[in-house]
Amino acid sequence: INKLATVIVLGILSLALTLGIYFDNYLKDTYFKEAKKKIEHAFSRLISEVQKIENNLKSGISFVQNDDSFIASVDLVNSYQNKENYNNALIDEEKKLIVSKLLDKVKLSLNDEISLFDKNEELIASVTKENDLYILNFLSFKDGKPIIYTKLENEYEYTIKDFDQEYKNKFKHIKANKLENSIYNLGAVTYLSKDDEIYIKSHLNIQDSYKQNILAHIEMAKKLDKKFFDSLSKDINILIGISNETPKKNLTPQLLSDNKILSNVNIEQTHEYYYSLLSIATINKNVSLKTVLDKQILLHALNEIRIQIFLIIIVIVILMLAVLR
Q1: What is the pTM of this model?
Q2: Which of 112, 268, 120 is nearest to 201 (CA)?
Q3: Angle at which helices 226-236 and 2-61 cross, to 10°
Q4: pLDDT tens track for 92-103
């Protein structure tokens, strides 16, 4: 009887352990598949948001194609601006009108930057957003040297500053050479990585009425910053943002608006969370985006099963010991 009881105990224990391992692996596999779906959905939502941003940026600068007064102002600057013999009364007043219109357009479209460059690719005017306020800037000249007029949108008077290297770097026109053919009619879109943020920028060349000469170049940008990614993370209930890590797989970086990104999604995991890294192409470097999904629910479920299996084993051992007596 004792031998039979021992065999029965061992058999039940083996069955309990087998069932425990099975459910353990089943839960891990189920949650992994669910995590993959959620992470793919997170990237899909990000792509969708970026596509909306791109379309908004393109439409945000398309006004220049039909705004005769704006084109006339640009043409005046191109025709009468003389750096050595600069007419402040004429040119600067025109630039104030231009930068005011740029402010209206960038605010109306809820974007972060807009810049206008002349036919020589030199800055005419720019509006940038910092700390929820827009800053108006336009380039002027004094004694043949460039200076910058700048003010906050809620200020009345402009402040004059030297057009130093910081401003030169800030307002340097970076040409989108690879997209030059699409810059004329529908506009082109580029991505720029700067200060752990991604700037999505639309470009459009302004041509004369005969479509023969470029009068100016206009750009509008929206930045994907921590605020953007925090808001998206809260909405989709998954952490997503820019990362310093590099994907393990050597995949070709894609544009953030390209649905091909989804084919590159590869799920990795640690003990605490599932994650995925994607490499995004920008004009100056590749940027990694990371999604993170906490394993807390899975770990809780696994612990519950393990505790239940352990309790079953203890009960069986106690019962069999009682029988053996």
Answers
A1: 0.80
A2: 112
A3: 130
A4: 999 999 999 999
SS3 273: strand
pLDDT for 241: 93
Number of Cβ atoms within 10 Å of the Cβ of 296: 10
Alpha carbons 203 and 66: distance in angstroms, whole number: 16
Straight-line distance from the first to the last Cα atom of the chain, in angstroms, rounded to the nearest whole number: 11
> What is the CB neighbour count within 10 angstroms for residue 250?
7
Q: What is the DSSP string of 8-57?
A: HHHHHHHHHHHHHHHHHHHHHHHHHHHHHHHHHHHHHHHHHHHHHHHHHH
pLDDT of res. 255:
75
**What residues contact residue 230 under an 8 Å CB cut-off, 6+ apart?**
241
Describe the chain by its helix, strand, coil percentages, rounded to 5: 50, 30, 25
Helix (H, G, I), strand (E, B) or coil at 210: coil
Torsion of CA 52, 54, 56, 61, to 10 degrees: -170
> How far is residue 115's CA from residue 117's CA, in Å, rounded to a whole number?
7
Cα 45 to chain center, whole Å?
Answer: 12
Tell me the pLDDT tens digit for each residue of 169-219: 788 776 655 455 555 555 688 898 888 899 999 998 887 766 677 888 999
